[in-house]
Specification:
Elements: E1 7-10, E2 14-19, H1 36-44, E3 51-52, E4 61-67, H2 70-81, E5 85-94, E6 101-105, E7 108-110, E8 120-122, E9 130-141, E10 144-153, H3 160-167, H4 183-189, H5 195-201, E11 208-217, E12 220-225, H6 230-236
Parallel strand pairs: 4-11
Antiparallel strand pairs: 1-2, 2-4, 3-4, 5-10, 5-11, 6-9, 7-8, 9-10, 11-12
């Protein structure tokens, strides 16, 4: 049975969770279990008002921090705004990335030519955006090449990792929006995804996982790490818990 929340750490001030892929952070109209924050409210009870400190796309799994008070939320959000938080992701991408490490430095803004309003892109007049990456492993499946990479966010733009990796020719496996065919996303949200499209995507959810958050707070170095989803781990050949 799926637990209400996957707890990484909990104390009087803070709740760190491993968000599953496919679960929205914010409330939806599909009931009290349809979002992470709604599940956190149920877990904490009515006496505590939870505050999301960071957010992840619905399809991205990984570490989410939730403050249990207004004061804790203010403290942590100031650290986020000051860029004093280190965020590390794992991503499985198409193709073998040639260099062992690299930096994508490309501004991001709204994609005016997209069929969906949520899509951004690399554009000359966009916001400065930087993503660092290190190759973890290169592998092949069914004659196709893939790379497992560790990604470091230097800025925090919407969809930044997915756009930057696609920009260098290595889109995230299972990415319906930035994988090269927007119809994969449009048909998915309209509830008409085909078996052929599922086969092209290879995974139910995009292979992007918020692996670790490191932050200095209240005189202590904090580190929260979450194991990736079983589907992600199997595909990348990682050990599973």
């Amino acid at each position: 049975m799926e637990p209400l929340v996957r707890i990484l750490h909990e104390d009087a001030d803070l709740l760190a969770l491993n968000k599953p892929a496919g679960l929205a952070c914010h409330p939806t109209k599909s009931g009290p279990l349809s979002s992470l924050i709604s599940r956190a409210r149920l877990h904490l009870g009515g006496a505590v008002k939870p505050h999301l400190i960071n957010r992840l796309d619905r399809e991205t799994s990984g570490v989410i921090l939730i403050a249990k008070s207004d004061a804790t939320a203010r403290d942590l959000r100031k650290l986020w705004e000051s860029r004093l938080v280190a965020k590390e992701y794992l991503a499985i991408v198409h193709g073998h990335i040639r260099d062992e490490r690299g930096l994508v430095d490309a501004p991001l803004g709204h994609d005016e030519s997209a069929q969906t309003f949520i899509k951004d892109c690399v554009c000359a007049d966009g916001a400065p955006s930087q993503t660092g990456y290190d190759v973890v492993s290169r592998f092949a499946r069914d004659g196709r090449e893939f790379t497992l990479t560790r990604v470091h966010l230097l800025t925090g733009r919407k969809h930044q990792i997915r756009i930057h990796l696609a920009h260098i020719g290595h889109p995230v496996v299972g990415d319906k929006l930035y994988g090269g065919d927007e119809r994969l996303y449009l048909d998915f949200v309209r509830g008409r995804q085909t078996d052929e499209q599922r086969a092209r995507l290879m995974l139910e959810h995009q292979a992007l996982h918020a692996n670790t958050i490191r932050v200095g707070w209240r005189g202590r170095a904090w580190e929260f790490t979450a194991p990736p989803e079983p589907e992600f781990a199997r595909f990348a050949g990682l050990p599973q818990p």
